[in-house]
């Protein structure tokens, strides 16, 4: 059970809709190993960012599963897109590492706000509830470490499906309780 910490809890939020609409320092892309685009949220980000994003991604030589790479936002009015590749299927350690790789880049680039989609829970088939718990635990632990909660102002969980809204609302209360 996680303790009440209003400061930590104020650093996380749920938002429902298309991730490309968010005005944050960086959005995270649930990409594939090629980083050259695909369906789902990856397709939406590449459509919104335009062909320059694909051109920049082509210089990155792909991305290993659970690793992350950063590019500009191009036609999306934000500083960065963090491209990561989640695991295929239910692999909690890999999912945790995927989020951690993105958070390493958030720290490295001194980003104040970042939005995550529900990585791996679409085409890659990670069941939604176990994924939600791994994600919230990983973010809670990361915010508790060192002065991470002072560095980052807002971590947004960008939800797209009705089922995820219910899950995140339910589990946010446990992982990020408020007084
Ligand atoms: N904004 C926010 N979330 C979205 C959007 C959007 N515009 N569109 C879909 N989602 P998925 P994965 C949600 O399949 O499981 C791609 O082809 C979606 O409802 O995009 O990690 C890549 O190239 C789901 O909740 O990513 C890879 O090949 C979540 O985003 C593969 O899919 C993730 O679903 C990666 O699969």
TrEMBL record:
GO BP annotations listed: DNA damage response; peptidyl-glutamate ADP-deribosylation; purine nucleoside metabolic process
Domain of life assignment: Eukaryota
Any one GO MF annotation of this record: ADP-ribosylglutamate hydrolase activity
Domain named Macro: residues: 1-176
GO cellular component, one term: nucleoplasm
InterPro entries linked: Macro_dom, Macro_dom-like
The protein's name in its UniProt record: Macro domain-containing protein
Species this chain originates from: Capitella teleta
Lineage: Eukaryota, Metazoa, Spiralia, Lophotrochozoa, Annelida
């Amino acid at each position: 059970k996680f303790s009440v910490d209003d400061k930590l809890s104020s650093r996380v939020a749920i938002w429902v809709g298309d991730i490309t609409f968010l005005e944050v320092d960086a959005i995270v892309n649930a990409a594939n190993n090629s980083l050259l685009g695909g369906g789902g949220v990856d397709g939406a980000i590449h459509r919104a960012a335009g062909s320059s994003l694909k051109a920049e991604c082509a210089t990155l030589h792909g991305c290993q599963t659970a690793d992350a790479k950063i590019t500009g936002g191009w036609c999306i009015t934000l500083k960065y897109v963090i491209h990561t590749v989640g695991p295929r299927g239910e692999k909690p350690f890999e999912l945790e590492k995927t989020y951690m790789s993105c958070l390493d880049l958030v720290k490295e680039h001194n980003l104040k706000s970042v939005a995550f989609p529900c990585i791996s829970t679409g085409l890659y088939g990670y069941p939604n509830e176990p994924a939600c718990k791994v994600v919230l635990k990983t973010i809670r632990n990361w915010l508790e470490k060192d002065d991470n909660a002072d560095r980052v102002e807002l971590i947004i969980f960008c939800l797209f499906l009705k089922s995820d809204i219910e899950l995140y609302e339910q589990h946010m209360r446990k992982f990020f309780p408020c007084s």
